[in-house]
Structure formats: C-alpha cells, structure tokens
Amino acid sequence: MLKITNLKATINEKLILKGLDLDIKPGEVHAIMGPNGSGKSTLANVLSGKNGYEIEGEISFNGMDLNELKTEERAQKGIFLAFQYPLEIPGVNTNIFLKTSLNSVRKARGEKELDTLTFLKLIKEKAKELNIDEKFLSRQLNVGFSGGEKKKNEILQMKLLEPKLSILDETDSGLDIDALRIVADGVNSYKNKENAFLIITHYQRLLDYIKPDFIHVLSAGKIVKTGSADLGEQLEKTGYANLS
Amino acid sequence: MKQNYDFDIEKIKNLSQEEKVSRQKNLDLFYESGFPSKQVEDWKFTDLNLIFNKNFDNISNEVNSESSKEFKVIENFEHNFIFLTNGKIISTNFDHEEKSKILIKDFNQEEVKNIDPSNTLALLNSALAFGGFSLEITKDYKLKKPLIVYNCFSQDLKNKILNNKNSIKLNEGSELTLIDYSDNNTQNNFIKNTVDTISLDQNAILKNVLIQNSNSNGHFYKYIKSSLEGGSNYENYILSSGLKLNKIEIEINLNKDNSSCSIYSALNLLEDQHQEIKTRINHNSPNCKSYQKIKNVLNDKSKGIYQGKIFVEKIAQKTDAYQLSKALIVSDNAEFDAKPELEIYADDVKCSHGSTSGSIDSDAVHYLMTRGISKKEAVKLLINGFLNEALEKITNNELKIFLEKILERQINGH
After folding, report:
1. Do strands B205-212 and B102-106 pair parallel, antiparallel, or not at all (unpaired)?
2. pLDDT confidence of residue B67
3. Looking at residue B71, what is its pLDDT?
4. C-alpha to C-alpha distances, A16 to A12, A54, B282, nearest whole angstrom
5. Minimal Cβ distance to B372: which of A90, A96, A108
6. Which segments of B294-355 does DSSP mark as H helices, in order?
7. Helix, coil or strand: residue B42
8. Residue A121 forms part of a structural domain
9. What is the per-residue pLDDT for B381?
10. Reported pTM
C-alpha cells in the first residue's frame, strides 16, 4: 500500500529524514518509535503533503507517486493524518467542517454527497461510538476542547473519512487512561484486512491497546531497527540510547 | 483639480421658491470646498475628490427616471417591506403588522435643519435631496417581522448623483429590525449620498442591518446620525460587500442613562473595492454601553478602513465602551488602515480598544486540506469563520440564517 524508498526531507536547509525505507501492506499495523528530534513528525508531515519540505526519494501509495499529489488529493485517495496537535479553528463550526470534509472526499471518490440530514444522522452515530458529546459537534472546531477531546475528534474524522492508511501522530499524548482506551477501541474497530495504520509514538502504552505487527525505531532520520511487538517492551526498559 | 460636476437646484421638481433659496445656500457652501480630498482629516484614507475625478465625467444631479421597475421580493423569509427606486417610495407592505402602529410617508425635506457645515456631503445632500422616507413606530409596538427597505435603481444613472434623506423614529418601548437592502448590479458608475436620522425613545430597540446584494459600480456614502434615550438599544450589522466604493459614517449619541449600542461589520472586499467604516460614539450620559467589532477581509487590491472614535463626556461615569477591529489580509496588494481613538473626560469608565491585522493561518489551511478540502474551499471556510463572528450575537434564528446566507454569498463574490 505504502512504499517509501530512500526518503530524504529537508526543511530550512536542515536535513531531517536521511534515507528512510518503509513498506506497509494492507491489514498491517506499523509503529514508529524514536527519541525526540528523530524525524517522526517530519515523516507524518511529509506524508500529509505539508508545504516547506524539500523531498528526495520515492513514496508510492497504491501505485501512485505521492509527491505528485496535493494535500487534499492524498486525503481523497485515502491517506489520513491524525495530528499530534489538532488545530483550533475559531469561527468554523465542527459539523460544517466535518460535512465539507466528508463531501469533498465523497465527491472525489465519485460518491454522492450527503445532504445535511443524512450527514447529521451519520455523524451522531459515529460520535456516540467514541463517546463524544453531541454538543461538541456544534461548537467551533477544537476551540476550547481538552487535549483528549481534540484527539477523539481526530479519530472521529478518521472513522468518517474511512481512509486506507491512517497515520496517528502521537495520538496517545495528552490522553488519560479512559480516553486512551476509547481511542484505541475506535482504531481497533476500524481496523480490517483492507486498511493499514502507521502509529507514531514515544511510548509503549498505546501499543498495549493497539497491537502492532511491526515496530520500527527511527533515529537521526533513519530506521535503525525493525522488530515485532516485543521490541516496544524492550525499548521501554532499555531506552533508545543503545540503539543508534 | 478640475471641478468634475455640475449641480443645479432647478433640476429638482416641485420646489417652492423659499425652498430653492435655502437649498441654494447649502449648495453654495458645498461649492466652497467641493468633494473632500485626503487633506481633510475625516477623509484622509478615502480621497473622494480624487476617486470621483478618476471615475466620473461631469457628475450631474438630473435624475429623470422614476419608473417603478418590476421587482422581486426575497422569498422564504417573512418580512415587511418598503420599496424604493432611486430613493423614492414606490410601494410599501406591512401585512404582517397592525398597520395603524406604523406611520410611513415621503420624507419632508422642509423639516431639515442644522446641517453640520463641516460635512460637505451632508451639505450637498441638503441642497439636492429628493425622495426618501420617514418611518415612525408608535409607542410599545414591536414589529413581528423584519422590515426590508429595498433600494433599487434605474438604469440611466451613469455619472449621476442621488441624494436621499430618511428618518426613522421609534417611540417608547417599540421594536424594529430594519434591513437596508441595496440591489444594484448595474455597471454604471453612479453616486448615492444618503443621510439617515434615527431617534430611539426610552427602551426602544432597533436592529439596523446594511446589506449590499450584488457587485456594483455604485459609489455610496451614508451618514447615519442617531440619538438614544434611556434604556434604548441600537444594533448595527454591516454586510455591505460588493460596492466599488462605500463609506458609512455612523454617529451615535447615547443621551440618557442605560442606553446602549453596538456596531458589527463583516466585510469581504474583492478586486479594487474600497470601503470605509467611520464611527463616532458619544457617551453623553452615565451608565451607557457601546460595543464595536469590525471585521474586514481584504482580497486582491482592495482597501478597507476603520476610523472609530469613542467620546466620553465628563458626566458619563460608569461608561463601558469596547472597540475592536480585526482584519484578515489575504493578498499582498490589499491594504487595511485603522484609526481607533478614545477621548475620555470622565474618570470612572471602562474603555478598551484594539486593532489587529494578519494573514490567513497556513497551518489551519493545511489542516483542512488534510481532510480532503481544496485550498480554495479551506480559505473560504476560514474567511467565513472569521466574518461569521459578527453575527454571533443575533438571537433571532431566522434572521441569523438569512444573514449567514448573504454573507456566504458575499464570500463567494456574490
């Protein structure tokens, strides 16, 4: 599904990713762990199409050259990034945002756009699954939401847009244990043989709930080690220091 | 600069000899200084003389056409209406109301007195005005539905100036929502110079909404002078995007205790549009409140201006005055100027003002794009979010939805 070959990314003349390889197949859950400054969020940003990066190397997503696609096209084709810090957007109503988003994606996929009533019915169902109070949906997007509410809102968007590849950038940070469980349940209930996950995290704790097939350790812009789920527990004990 | 106009009292029909003399006096006073240029402090950001010279040939006040063109009222929004062509009443409809409670007639030009001689456009207005309406609501009557004043224009106004005066009086305890709705998609350059006088008696409530419904080559100036008695409330909502040039000058006199006023604007300026909002709030009495929130989005080569002054008299203790201007500058070629002023002579007051301008948050655009929304739509969502705040205090849901739709259309460029 996603094949990254020798990816290099530079921002402000600083080389952050220094030749990264990654291969994710449908149905797989990959976790990327690594110390601060290793390039984890850069990888998420680059995959989402954020401006400002100079890119070298190949990123192929279901046979398409990702570098050729605009940010919104990546989303329409099935890449979803759950932000580490979801933005607060004053004045923009959450429901209107969600409807605009869903219909943009549906339109691009050649599906019928949803009218307001159908949309509201759908979003209420999805919100309920994630234990999100309906009143958040009529508020301004993420404005005044707690950290946990913001993260749940990200997962709500994921479930609404039904992406093929979901990238979760430190979704566990700022979550208490109950919210963590809800988020993990949300991810697990969406997981199937057709889609894949790339989970970026510092800690093992999210991986206790969402079982990865592979764990990669990112250090200084490269993947230095790849292993099975056990690697996470090992890292929790020994730290990253001995790896690079 | 050459005098680019030719005004003549004789072109106005049905004037008494006496009226001609008084109008001529005002015209002579106008001729002494002509249209204001940027050398006049009040016009430093809007050089009217220059703009008129550039866009008009020999402006004349001769307006012949009074034909009532076919008009369409807005559907799916219950309202009363006054229909004006070139400022003159063509028809009225108050079917939603008790008709005996509403007095509507042509404006009586002879009632006009005390023109501020420093405002040359008001002088010109007093010299050349015709048409206009006077509206009075009787004591304690609260209109059930909003009143839309449709401003329509004939097609022969190229290089013409229209001068109108209107007056609105709300007696004690009465309530009105008045929507001043300008519908002129003409490509003809013309000028409209309007003076509105508003008076609110004790505990009266007026919501005044200004809407421009289409892109137009109209050059508008509107001067609103209002006076408020105790406990009355006056709210303004300015949604006048679309005009080539627009200057709205609002003077509000809070004359008695516990009167309050607010001004909200939501403008999305495109191309080379130029809009100025100038306000002066006079706190003449204690315990009054004023609130201003001015929001401008500047696209293309547009120019927006806000000049706002809060004046607090010595006796006006416990004044609560707030003023904020926020501009979103979308294009490098756009410009926004703000001149907030406080002049305070009382010592126990709460006054604050602020002015910010910034560009579109590119991280927010990126966030929206990662959700499949195109850049263009994302920017529109953010602009809408920015401007919509001006409508958040409106409690009447029907009115709010109506105005949200207008605003959305204006953000889409009509």
Report:
1. unpaired
2. 61
3. 75
4. 10, 10, 59
5. A108
6. none
7. helix
8. no
9. 95
10. 0.91
Which amino acid belongs to residue B31? Answer: Y
CA distance A217 to B370: 26
Please tell me the total count of domains within chain A: 1
pLDDT at B2: 59
- Tell which residue, B282, B283, B246, has the closest CA to residue B265: B246
Question: CA-based diameter of chain A, in Å?
Answer: 56
Whether A101 is covered by a domain: the verdict is no
Distance CA B44, CA B157 (A): 28
Q: What's the confidence (pLDDT) of residue B69?
A: 62
Candidate from B361, B364, B371 with C-beta closest to A157:
B371
Residue B65: per-residue pLDDT: 64
Taking an 8 Å cut-off on Cβ atoms, the answer to whether A72 and B386 are in contact is no
pLDDT at B66: 60
Torsions phi, psi for B108 (to 5 deg):
-90, 105
The pLDDT value recorded for residue A102 is 97
Domain at A222, CATH number: 3.40.50.300
What pLDDT is attached to residue A240? 79
- For chain B, residues with pLDDT lower than 70 are 1-3, 65-70, 112-114, 185
**SS3 label, residue B179:** strand
DSSP string, B186-246: --S-EEEEEEEEEEE-TT-EEEEEEEE-S-EEEEEEEEEEEEE-TT-EEEEEEE-TTEEEE
β-strand partners of A2: A24, A61
| Mutate: best of B324, B368, B411, partner A, most A CBs <10 A | B368
- Mean pLDDT throughout A78-106? 95
Residue ranges making up the domain that contains A151 = 2-87+147-238
SS3 of A35-96: CCCCCHHHHHHHHHCCCCCEEEEEEEECCEEHHHCCHHHHHHHCEEEECCCCCCEEEEEHHH
What's the pLDDT tens digit per position in A28-81?
Answer: 999 999 888 899 999 999 999 999 999 999 999 999 999 999 999 999 999 999
Residue A65 lies in a domain: yes
- Does pLDDT of A17 surpass 80? yes
* Ramachandran category for residue B399: left, alpha or beta (phi over 0 → left; psi -120 to 50 → alpha): alpha
**Cross-chain residue pair A76–B374, CB shorter than 8 Å:** no
pLDDT of residue B114: 67
Half-sphere exposure of B269 (CA within 13 A, CB side): 30
A-proximal residues of B, 355-384, CB under 8 Å: 361-364, 366-375, 377-378, 381-382, 384
Q: Tokens 């000049």, residue?
A: B307
Distance CA B112, CA B350 (A): 36
User: Are A113 and A165 a contacting pair, CB within 8 Å?
Assistant: no
pLDDT for B56 equals 93
Q: Write down the residue that tokens 């919210």 correspond to.
A: A179
Whether A99 is covered by a domain: the verdict is no
**Which of B367, B374, B389 has its CB closest to that of A87?**
B367
Chain A residues in contact with B379 (beta carbon < 8 A): none
